[in-house]
Amino acid sequence: MTHLRTPSGARPRIQPLLLAVCCLALVLAAGAFAAACGGGTSTSSTTTAAPGTTTGGSASETQVVMKNFAFSPAEVTIKVGDTVTWTNGDSANHTVVADNGEFKSGDLGQGATFSFTFTKAGAYPYKCGVHPTMTGTVTVK
Residue by residue, what is the 3-state secondary structure of the chain? Predict the structure, then answer.
């Protein structure tokens, strides 16, 4: 193997700026890899209400938690104008997909949330697109 030598015979030094840029590129590549493998998260608004409960005001927010590969509570009843927020409590990624296509989250990593405000009365069955045995229903009155 041949080594580079400067005219004086010494090995050239890597410039500190070049070294810093290379290290940054490695860190960014590792982060992109982790996100592609499910390590990333997507988030929206969060609240402190307990699962299945609503908060005060004219419009309310209901919490549903994805835990142990199930929606909890699996069935909620809300009013027109209310919002449901799903939070992923599992280490596996999940999604929230309405059977009728009305709403669809992206991949939700652990701790990530997805919110949807319901503007029409009706029953909205949904599932996890990654784990179709995970099902739930939002009933809007």
Answer: CCCCCCCCCCCCCCCHHHHHHHHHHHHHHHHHHHHHHHHCCCCCCCCCCCECCCCCCCCCEEEEEEECCEEECCEEEECCCCEEEEEECCCCCECCEECCCCCECCCECCCCEEEEECCCCEEEEEECCCCCCCEEEEEEC
